[in-house]
Design a protein that fits this description.
Radius of gyration: 18 Å
Number of helices: 2
Shape: elongated
Structural class: little secondary structure
Helix content: under 10%
Strand content: under 5%
Largest sheet: none
Order of helices and strands: HH
Number of strands: 0
Distance between the termini: 68 Å
């Protein structure tokens, strides 16, 4: 009943069918959604492992608690999308737009966000270990209490972002724009800030 053909034909019809049949488990892993118009689609808790969303429009879509490991979102638009608690390990977001997206509590380990636009997004309480944000635009994004071990932020613009309480052990911020970035209570052990712009670290209360 809830088929890929229905979803691609009409998001409204798909959402109505999901609301009427909330108990149905949906498996759409490895399906091709490239260039599809899926704005506002309810894909929460759906198995979409390895699916292709390249250049798809997913503005305002609900992908919370979905299985999206190794999914491909290159050049897709996920502005305002909900990805709360979603498993996105080893997914690809190269060049994607994630402005205002809520990815709090998600598994984003080994995920590629290089050259993506992630402005005003919520990535708090996430695991982003070994993720790649090289050359990404990440203005005013929240990373509070997240695990960001060995993450690559080189050449990224992180102006106004908040890493309060985050674990940044071994991460690379070389050449990044860190103007107005908050690092209060963050673990910056072994972090590379070489040639970073606008870096301002909190003062140790024990130091004069």
């Amino acid at each position: 009943m809830l088929t890929i053909d229905m979803l691609l034909r009409s998001v409204a019809e798909w959402n109505e069918a999901r609301n009427a049949n909330p108990e149905i488990k949906i498996d759409l892993h490895s399906e091709d959604f490239s260039t599809a118009y899926l704005c506002g689609a309810d894909l929460g808790e759906v198995d979409l492992i390895g699916a292709d969303f390249c250049e798809a429009s997913l503005n305002g879509a609900n992908l919370s608690d979905a299985k999206l490991g190794e999914a491909d979102f290159r050049d897709a638009d996920l502005s305002g999308a909900e990805l709360i608690g979603t498993d996105l390990h080893h997914a690809y977001f190269n060049g994607a737009i994630l402005n205002g997206a809520d990815m709090s509590g998600a598994n984003l380990t080994d995920t590629d966000f290089s050259a993506a636009c992630i402005n005003g997004a919520d990535m708090s309480d996430t695991d982003l270990s070994r993720a790649d944000f090289h050359d990404a635009s990440i203005l005013g994004t929240y990373f509070m209490d997240s695990t960001l071990i060995n993450v690559n932020f080189s050449e990224a613009d992180l102006s106004g972002s908040d890493f309060n309480g985050a674990n940044l052990t071994g991460s690379n911020f070389s050449g990044a724009n860190l103007s107005g970035v908050i690092f209060d209570d963050a673990d910056i052990t072994g972090v590379d800030f070489t040639d970073a712009i606008g870096l301002s670290l909190p003062t140790d209360p024990g130091e004069e």
